[in-house]
Design goal:
By secondary structure, the chain is an alpha+beta fold. The protein is 57% helix and 15% strand. It has a 6-stranded mixed β-barrel. A 6-stranded mixed beta barrel has the order 13-14-18-15-17-16. A 4-stranded antiparallel β-sheet has the order 2-10-1-11. It is globular.
Amino acid sequence: MSATSTLLSANLRTHGRRYVSTGLAVAISTAFIAITLIVMTTLAASLSAGVYSRYRGGTIVVERGKGGTEESMSRATEALKALPGVSGIKEMGQWPGEAQSDYSRGKLYVSILPSDPFEQPRLTQGKLPESETEIVIPESTASTLKLSVGDTLGMRPGYSSKEYRSVSIVGLTPSRTSGADLPASYLTDKGFAAVYGTSTTGAILVATSSPDADQNANPPVATQETWVASANSALAGIPDITVSTVKDKIKEDLDQAQIGSAATMAIMLVFPAIAALVASIVVSSTFRVVLAQRTRELALLRTLGATRGQVRSLVVREAFAIGAISSAIGVAAGALIGTLAAWGTGLADSFPAAIGALSPVQLIGTWLGATLFTTLVGVFPARAASRVAPIAALAPVNEVGAAARKKHTVRFIIGLLMTVGSCALVALALSAKDNSAKFLGAFGGSILALIGLILVVSVLLPSITRGFGLLFPGMLSAMARENTTRNPGRTSATGTAIIIGVTLVVTIMVGAASMRTTLVDAVNSARPFDLIAVSRTGVLTDEQKSGIVSTEGVAATVDQYGAPGELTKTSGAPAYKPLGNSDLDAEVAASVSVSGEPDYTSVVHSPVTQLGDDQVRVGEKSVEGQKLKLCVDSCVELTAVYSNSLSFGQAAVSEATLRRISEPERQAVIIKMVDGADPETVQSALLKDASLDVSGSALERKIYMTMIDRLMLVLVGLLGVSVLVSLVGVANTLSLSVAERTRENGLLRALGLTKRQMKGLMAVEALILSLTGALIGLVLGACFGWIGVLALPLEDATPVLSIPWGQLAIVFVIAVVCALVASWLPGRRAARVSPSEALATE
């Protein structure tokens, strides 16, 4: 072993404790990158496997062209079945369906059960259907309907009023799917025909006899191309039918899957990149301070004959060793967590399959990249360390001087100019009419503004921290306040790391809360009712009304009556312009469904404009303000009021007006729910009546809120890693300050400072750092979150700023508590220093 290697090994043992937080920051960031790569790679592999399984056993794919009809597709299917050598045909489509149980109603996506050699559905329970009265459904649907294998449900086509057909559940399929299709239910071809009355589709997969098929049961490409020619010949008399090889369709679907997975991976890697950025700040700060503390040691090496190049090489090799060890730990931890995540989310069928999907190239590349990253971050401190003059070995250690209180005027000016310029760019982008330019300009400007603000704040942070510390009275607070400014470089780096993490998390929270409020307000404004129950028969009976009123979760109801009528101009012409058909009979064009608007006061949760008894609401803009003639049993002239919520053939008047000209029937019941009631639970209870349809804004609001909340949790969880790394920086700052102030701490202990007070000193120091960074992060995050909402292309919605004070308080408390926890170990170490030993330390 060379002298340099021996010295390197000794330095790592001696100074290893100072590099623990550096290694931890590198390991966390590396693990994060490894987890993201593993999950996204497994997703891409799963999508590819789904594509191959979809076309398994096929030779050619036959589809309808743009002008194709169901009849032409049916003729093509029969012609192909009669073609010699065709061994099977698979319907590739999925049809919407509706299932009814005693508990609820749910949607299905139904496929015809394929036969060999096509891919068979994967079951989690039961068996495949064999008769026309048997069905296989996804586990999620079974859970919604509270059914299991062996139970019976009612089945009918989606968006229809057909009678439900009773079928028996014989198996369950997984709820998650990696292919292009939705989680499917399966019926036999006879069962499908019994429910839907047809078995035609827009695409079929044709299997042929082929002894030399590959592992996916697909014949060679030459065979596929021969069958394309044969099929085109057999289908020559059928218009608008296209025939493709399975190879071409697989390539087309794989290209789409790879584009989608690549875009997703690019988005997902943004979050590890943020964590790596924060880690770079922590790592760079650590190296600078540790090397400043080792000034005498490095100068002594120069005195003993070491060249600048040798000192620089020694420090770079230290950084390389720390990076290699830390990133290896991070890659190992990330591989384990990523594999468990891929298995747990269903991207991999089993844990061994998830392990088999690991890419050694990606893992080695991640390790190598993190190692080089750490090494490069250590290059600049190494260059500074190599310039230490030999005479510095004779100088006393001056911790304050080691911090090198440099002026950062240039950095401040650059940051200020960047901030002002990017804010102007954001303002210009927000005024743009093109949605793409608006979003991209605001996003790019916000990124530049964040960088500029970070540069400005990093210069001002030591002064801001000291000023903020003035709010804390007492001797310990005064000492802690001064300690935070003794090394302004380290304070800036640590505070900046906290600011970046908190800013990003708060941006997501404020943006999500504002989006939620904006969308809910827009929904409430357009559809101010929670739920509306409509009878499929057109008339809602008193018995049905009683059932609705008695349903748990229903707070108030109002009946809505309606009747068929005619709406014309005073000249006799139809009020609505015929839709794309000028030959439409005038009487038919004038026919409308008239609804009578009741007093909504008891059921609305946002202001509504009630119609006057002399008004009629229509969806035809051109007649707004005109006198129209509405006839049901008798006629009345009313003034037209336009509303974009009504369509062709619809009109609304006040209930009093409707009753004046007709004897209307109850067609719907408008429902206001109990505060806190779950709309899906109430809907499920109402849908026990098979003749009812239930919809409303409450369901739409829940979809928006659920979607936004889930997305926010995912994004905050991903960004939370950067906050964790920044808190590692807090622990690093305090640990280094303990190490470099050993004599000072010993003197304080000798002057009567107790162990408890020493721990308190560290805690207050951490508190001042975290409070300052967290408060700045809260302000910046709120601003960027609001800019993000303004930049989104929201149609027919007015952006509303919503500050989630409770969530922000939680972020603030977590940041402070975690910083205090991070101060525990350094404080404990400082308190354990013996006064006599500390005073004897050189």
